[in-house]
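Field reference: sequence -> structure
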Amino acid sequence: MEFTVLLVDDESPAREELRYLLESYTEIKIIGEASSGQEAIEKILTLKPDVIFLDIQLSDMDGFEVAWQVFSEGVTPVVVFATAYDEYAVRAFEINALDYILKPFSEKRLDKTVKRLFEVFGERKQKQESLKVSEYLQKTRKTACSKLSLWKNDRIYLVCPEEICYCEAIEKGSKIKTEKGEFLSPYTLSELEEKIGSPDFVRTHKSYLVNFDKVKEIIPWFNGTFILSIKGYEKDEVPVSRRHAKEIREMFEI
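Structure field:
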């Protein structure tokens, strides 16, 4: 996870010190510096950094004005105020600044700020991925379904595909795990995939066909593979093989 940073301070030594400390974090990419409020506004609107480390007392305007001007343009970077004065802390948090650090900068104190940034961007990424999954499923979900004839205890049950959580290949057909329990089918996974005919159902492995509407989590695993946690079957570990991992990444942009 990488995020971009713009440094804003009218004192060159302060910018250099902050750059030196931040460059020790490989996830942080410093994309520019500004020595005045006006220069900062122009660069923020052009470069759109994820984070700005912003001094409060600049030569032409204060840091609060810089923040308000870019916010009013619809650009909303995370703001960390970096200043020699502690009397502006309350005002800083009124504009939802993530943090307020004092000069001279302490490595230990700055590390706390960076950890908070990791938390913020980690949460954003999770929300974005969840939204992508939801949008994809909503876009491709079928409005109607044909029921499948499935076996359980020598009886035949008619099951709607949208009730299926996932299917697992077994020696003579498939095991079908649904919201209402487990069933058996004489059909292979390829035959089931063709019969269901829904883009919600994706092959994740030669032995698994998954209804992605029922996926609770996509968990990174070894060698670029994944493990899926399925609603109602959280204790089961449904694999995504290397062969199918690329398709899953492209599908959900992860």
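Note: Residues 23 and 29 are 8 Å apart (CA to CA).
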